[in-house]
Each structure stands twice: as structure tokens, then as C-alpha cells.
Here is the input.
Amino acid sequence: MVELLGEIVKGKVVRLEEYGAFVEIDIEGTVATGLVHVSEVAVDYVENIYAYLAEGDEVDVRILDVKDDGKIDLSIKRADPEWVDEEAPNLRSKLDKDFNKRLRRFMHKSQMIQGEARRQKRGRVGT
Here is the structure.
């Protein structure tokens, strides 16, 4: 089954829940049921899955993952031949780096101040 990861297969929606659709697929003569999470139904945000799918619908799905417990993750939106994975944008800007540098400096000074306060407190307790 692992060699089928990424493959696009035909499936039939057998049950709908608010969090996703259970789709029955035929893999090498074996019928299996996988889950299409609501986030994998369409490129757009899906607020109401019932507006996109109905039980009995025939859909193309891409096999995303087969877990150790036998659960199968599927995707309808990634089965589209024109689907392109979005690249994660580079969120590390110069401002982020400067902020992180200032935060580390502040945390270091804070720990030094706290350590000095503990040392002074211990010195007073022993007197």
C-alpha cells in the first residue's frame, strides 16, 4: 500500500461529517475507506462540506498517507492535475531576526538579574 502514496484513484463518498468525507476506494481489488479532511476538499475555505459533496458522489482522490493503524488520508483538491503545492513563504524577515535578537538579549539580562536577586536573598537568609 505504501507504493500507492501520491497516486490518484477514483472513489465514492460513503459518509459525510462536518470534519470531512469518508470515501471508499478500490486498491488492487481491495475496498478501503479513507478520510478526506474538510481542509482537503477544495482550495477555497470550506465552511459547509455539505455544499461541496453529497453521499454517493464519485470523486478523484489522491492518497496522502496510510498510517500504521490502517487509516488512509485522502485529498480531493490535490487530485486536481493542475494542483501545485504552495511553497511556504520565507517568514524570516530582517525585522523578525532583529526582534529575536533583542528578545534573546532581554531574556539573558532577565535571567542574570533574577540570579543576582536569588544570590542576594540567600545571603540575607544566612545572616
